[in-house]
Amino acid sequence: MADLKQLMDNEVFMAFSSYATIVLMKMMFMSTATAFQRLTNKVFSNPEDCASFGKGENAKKYLRTDEKVERVRRAHLNDIENIVPFLGIGLLYSLSGPDLSTALLHFRIFVGARIYHTIAYLTPLPQPNRALAFFGGFGVTLSMAYRLLRSRLYL
């Protein structure tokens, strides 16, 4: 079993850790962006969240959906669906001894694709911008999984 010093000396693992931190911070930003949209547009999904804006029937008018809030929320959900698999597969991949330049290419494309996906979603840019960004990141995760299965795991 590798000790902490060995992990810290593993350049691929440290690169993965850096890029994983970036996408996790981006995902955290999306939750605050959703909250910002909810507060700005006074749109809430829970009755207790409306208490600051009114009582009784007056507060119920804030229990609604809004396209701006939903767009940010959907972008955040898409992040969760794509970043979580990247973190798991990327961790295993980074510990499997890949070439540093190949690993960096995988990590950079994924992070760039996720950032571009969010920009394309929130702006909104016309399709196929968002789809290309999605498939770019998804393809990177599949590529890491394939390389991991091919080189290190027993099937």
From TrEMBL:
Subunit field text: Homotrimer; The trimer binds only one molecule of glutathione.
Record-linked Pfam families: MAPEG
Its job: Conjugation of reduced glutathione to a wide number of exogenous and endogenous hydrophobic electrophiles.
Protein name: Microsomal glutathione S-transferase 1
Species of origin: Myodes glareolus (Bank vole)
Transmembrane segments: 12-29, 131-149
Membrane topology value: Multi-pass membrane protein
Enzyme Commission code: 2.5.1.18
UniProt catalytic activity: RX + glutathione = an S-substituted glutathione + a halide anion + H(+)
